[in-house]
Structure prediction request, 313 residues.
Amino acid sequence: MSINANAEAVASRRKSRIGETVAALPWLLPTMILIAGVVLYPAGLMVYTSFFKYTKQGIRKGDAPIGLDNYIGPAGALTFPGVPVGRILLNTVVWVVVVVIVTVLLSLLLAQFLNKPFRGRKLLRLFIILPWACSVVMTATVFRYGLQENVGLFNRLLVDTGILEVGRAWTKDPTSAFWIAVFVAIYVSLPFTTYTILAGLQSVPDEVLEAAHVDGANPAQRYLQIVLPLLRPAIATAALINIINVFNSLPILRLLQETPGYHTGHITTTLMYEYQRSLGPGVSSALSVLNFLFCLVIIAIYLAAVRPTKEVD
Prediction:
C-alpha cells in the first residue's frame, strides 16, 4: 500500500508541476515571442547569411552555399589580404580587459564613497548617473569635436595651460584614438557599474561588520574578508554586462577613429563594419559569428576565474 501511495504522490506532484507550467504559459509567451523575434531569429539569420556570397550592395550571388569561404576563403573574414587579424584580436582583448577592469575598480571606489553619509550625497549620485543617461553617440561626438586639432576645447585647454605647445590631432592617430576611445568607454560605463556595486554594498548586513569590528578586524580586513566576498555577485553581474557592452561599442570607436583602413586601432567590432561596407553582409556575418564565439570565450574565462556563484564562507 505504501508503494502505491508513494507512486500516487509522485504522479500528483508531477501533474501539479505540469499544471503550474501550463498556467504560466500565457504570462511567459509574450516574452518568449519577443526573445525569438529579437534575439534568436536575427542570430539564426546571421549564421545563415555567413554561408552565402553577397555583393557589397547586399545582393546574394547564387543560391548554393559556399561553405567556409566567408570565414577562411581567399577574401574571408580571417584571411582577407592586408588585414592584420592577429593584431586586431589582440586589440580586442586589450579593449575588453582594460575597459572592464578599470571600470570595475573605479566603480568600487565610487560606490564605497557614495555609500558613506555626507551632505550632498543625493546630488552627487545624480551627477554620476548623467553619462549613463546621455546618448553614447552624443558623448563620443562631444569628445571628438573637443579633440579637434585647431578648434577643439580640450586641445585649447591643453595649449593654454602649457601642457602642449600646439594642438594635436588626437583622433587622426590610430594609437591615441584607440586609447581615447578606451577612456570614453570607461566614462560611459562607470554609472551603471557604480550603481550595481552600490546596490550590493547596501545589502551587506551592518551587524556582520559591527561584529567583525568588535572582534578586532581593522577596516581593510573587514572590506577584503567580508564586504568584497559579499559583493561578488554584484561585481560579476556588472562585469558580464560590461563585457557584452564593450564588444558592441561601435559608435565610440567609429566616431573617435578618423583614420580609414585596417589600422592598428581596429577591434573585431569595427572590422565587421569595414567588411559590411566593402565586402557585403556575407563576410561581415562570418566575422560576427566569430566575434560572438570570441565573446563567449572571454566570458567563460572570466566565469572560470572569478566563480561568482561560489558560496561565501
